[in-house]
């Protein structure tokens, strides 16, 4: 099912607030350039983070709840949340959006079905759009492109796999995920989202992470209390913070205001 078929509409005030959240004026009619501008702005404003899992906050895969978390609560999320919310914004702006299921590579092995949620956006040609994978391409990638595709974050390549139209998505030669061609409703992602949020075997259970594209094109990441600044050339500077400094870092670098560190026992 195409996402647009089930779309009930984002009210204009919510759309305006979302655009203000990512610092973009009304982008006008759907276009490839506008889509690229929206994706990069989202990556610069909304962090990839798994804090809700460690704050014991429920993950609700409901479009209105996802938008409220990003816009009203000024938070980020992981793939189901970020790409789910972004799909709502894009659809409200007139883009034709479908939700695609993907399997994230762990080395050379892909993970379980619905391990990741990515977006297909159809303009004159189909585009792969992803604001929920942490460090990935900064701009959309042509879904029908079979050669190298240059991006500020490296070289993307989409390689066909199997007979069902699946594509292996590589960045600088490293497999990132295997994405399917068939659209899905958001509810199809609920079981795997629940597993990621609750299972001790989930990679998100290993610790907290909060990461966002920096103004200079590098990346700022807070893993637990370790602050990592990655420059555009890949050089890294790491700093171990006190708990109080980590709370300040959430505010300073990601705009997230917390009264305690994720995982800490409430007072």
Please provide a written account of the structure:
It is a single chain. With 267 residues, the protein is an alpha+beta fold. It is 27% helix and 28% strand. It contains seven helices and 14 strands. The chain has helices at residues 12-22, 32-45, 51-54, 63-71, 79-92, 190-198, 243-254; strands at residues 48-49, 96-106, 109-110, 116-122, 126-129, 141-142, 149-151, 154-161, 166-171, 174-184, 209-213, 219-223, 226-230, 236-240. The strands form two sheets. Strands 2, 3, 4, 5, 6, 7, 8, 9 and 10 form a nine-stranded antiparallel beta sheet that branches. Strands 1-11-12-13-14 form a five-stranded antiparallel beta sheet. A hairpin with a 5-residue loop joins strand 13 (226-230) and strand 14 (236-240). The longest helix has 14 residues, at 32-45. It is globular. The model is unreliable at 1-7 (pLDDT under 50).
How large is the count of helical segments? Answer: 7
Low-confidence stretches: 1-7
Strand content: 25-35%
Element-by-element helix/strand order: HHEHHHEEEEEEEEEHEEEEH
Count of strand segments: 14
Q: Average pLDDT, to the nearest integer? A: 93
- Global structural class: alpha+beta
Which percent range fits the helix content?
Answer: 25-40%
What does the oligomeric state look like here? single chain
Write down the Rg: 18 Å
Give the N-terminus to C-terminus distance in angstroms.
46 Å
Main sheet, how many strands, which sense, barrel? 9 strands, antiparallel
Shape designation: globular
